[in-house]
Design brief:
One of its GO terms (molecular function) is metal ion binding. By secondary structure, this protein is of the alpha+beta class. The chain is built from six helices and 18 strands. It has two domains: 63 residues, no CATH class; 206 residues, Fumarylacetoacetase-like, C-terminal domain (Fumarylacetoacetate hydrolase, domain 2), CATH 3.90.850.
């Protein structure tokens, strides 16, 4: 099953278009895309029994963030060996966890205003929680996942790295710094949910390319370790980490500029197209 947010309304995706969930369910499920996760089991049972749904044409430019208002957004640093190595850092013994504040979430085809000249890209697989998870072991972790989507952990490197300790969360939470979409894909749609090709390009040049099978802490491990500490709730997001190829680690360093087009993809899941414009310049100040 594939679901999406079409102009603020929950829709089922089909090869030939979309079905409005509120209309097809006669109001049983509301139009709000965020509301579906608290009734995930009920919703998937209904969707599985839906026969010959009427599909309407889809205009991809109308798609918004499929999870528009997550309660919690977790992000994992240095979760690919290559990315840790390009930063000159050892592999973590435990997941390096930070947050992207929920107001940074945006859609799959939005324009992001650049606050500085040092904004970087980070292609990521994003997990969407579908069932409350408390102290879940890895063997059952995928049972608590609604699906996965494509994400970018956009990062303002100056703000992120100023001072000691670094400020990962605030440096990665400017408006629009969490593009996700274009849809949520349930794990049963994927041949191998633990080994997917992902990458991104800037103006057509591929800058990141890897497989999620190379994650240091795979999805099941992240759900297990996070849920051992605090509840994961329906509609929460986990940005699982980025592979090597970020601009900050290049020589010379390279960052996003107004007019750039950043395309991000995961095989079998979908593709984001994020554009960039000049924004109000943010000035970093040290204490």
């Amino acid at each position: 099953m594939r679901i999406a947010n079409l102009d603020g309304r929950l829709v089922l995706r089909h090869p030939d278009g979309v079905t409005d969930v509120e209309a097809a369910s006669d109001g049983r499920f509301p139009a709000d895309p965020q509301a579906v996760f608290s009734r995930w089991d009920e919703f998937t049972a209904w969707a599985g029994d839906l026969r010959e749904p009427r599909a309407e044409p889809l205009d991809p430019s109308r798609l918004k963030a499929p999870v528009p208002r997550p309660s919690q957004v977790f992000a994992i640093g240095m979760n690919y060996a290559g990315h840790a190595a390009e930063g000159g850092l050892p592999l973590p013994l435990e997941p390096a966890v930070f947050t992207k504040f929920p107001t940074s979430i945006t859609g799959p085809a939005d324009e992001v205003k650049l606050p500085t000249s040092t904004v970087d890209w980070e292609a990521e697989l994003v997990v969407v929680i579908g069932r409350r998870a408390v102290r879940v072991d890895a063997a059952r972790a995928w049972d608590h996942v609604a699906g996965i989507t494509v994400g970018q952990d956009l990062s303002e490197r100056t703000r992120q790295l100023v001072g000691v300790p670094p400020q990962f969360s605030i440096g990665k939470s400017f408006p629009g710094f969490g593009p996700i979409g274009p849809e949520i894909v349930t794990p049963d749609e994927l041949t191998d949910r633990d080994d997917l090709e992902l990458g991104c390009s800037v103006n057509g040049e591929v800058v990141q390319h890897a497989r999620t099978g190379d994650l240091v802490f795979p999805v099941a491990s992240l759900v297990e370790r996070l849920s051992a500490i605090l509840p994961l709730t329906p509609g929460d997001l986990i940005f699982t980490g980025t592979p090597s190829g970020v601009g900050h680690s290049r020589s010379p360093q390279r960052y996003l500029a107004p007019g750039d087009v950043l395309e991000t993809w995961i095989s079998g899941v979908g593709r984001l197209r994020t554009t960039f414009a000049e924004g109000h310049r943010h000035v970093s100040r040290t204490a």
